[in-house]
Amino acid sequence: MVEITAESILQCRVNSLTSPPPVVSTSSAFDPGSLSNATLSNANLTATRTSTSTGGAASTSYRSSGKYYFEFIVGASHGSTDFVGVMASSYGYFFAVNGNTGTGVGVWLGSGSIVSNGGPSGSLGASAAASGSVIGAAFDGDNERIWFRLNGGNWNGSGTANPATNTGGVAYPVAAMAPAVAFSPYGSPTAGDNITANLGASAFSGAVPFGFTAGWPP
């Protein structure tokens, strides 16, 4: 017979809150077949633009459910609406950098604006275009919400937003989504600009929210 005490219950609660998040055994990467005016390197995790025209890359894996945390690391970004986020296969890079209505949600690096389904949905509070900037993303496919943060700052630019409690998330149209980057023709686009996706292949810069899986599975 197992004795259940208040102390054992408390310890279980503590363990559940302090245990490390689950980690994907194998992480996704960008799909070579998704490329437009871009090349891949670094085990298909770094997308580099090859022209000043619109282009980009998307993950090999699309998800409509589950909770996943991943990051984008800016190598160089000069397009004013260079985009990092998630999009449906039907969305397209042109829609992403122009803010057209469609099934995608992400951050415009130049301004730090969060755009969803063609409209403004918040801001990170600062530009995210500087080299070395890390944009964390918490994707909640079960509740159709997503959160972004810059260099470990506030989620969606708000001190009260929290993916662990499903608070302050940006809604997006229901669809299977994949992590993606899109290069903008606006501003001062420069061939060689590049963005890396960390989909779980290496340690994250920021803490993974409670209840989320570390990485994006293939």
Automatic annotation (TrEMBL):
Domain B30.2/SPRY, residue spans: 1-204
Signal peptide (residue range): none
Listed InterPro entries: B30.2/SPRY, B30.2/SPRY_sf, ConA-like_dom_sf
Entries under PROSITE patterns matching the protein: B302_SPRY
Protein name: B30.2/SPRY domain-containing protein
Organism from which the protein derives: Bradyrhizobium elkanii
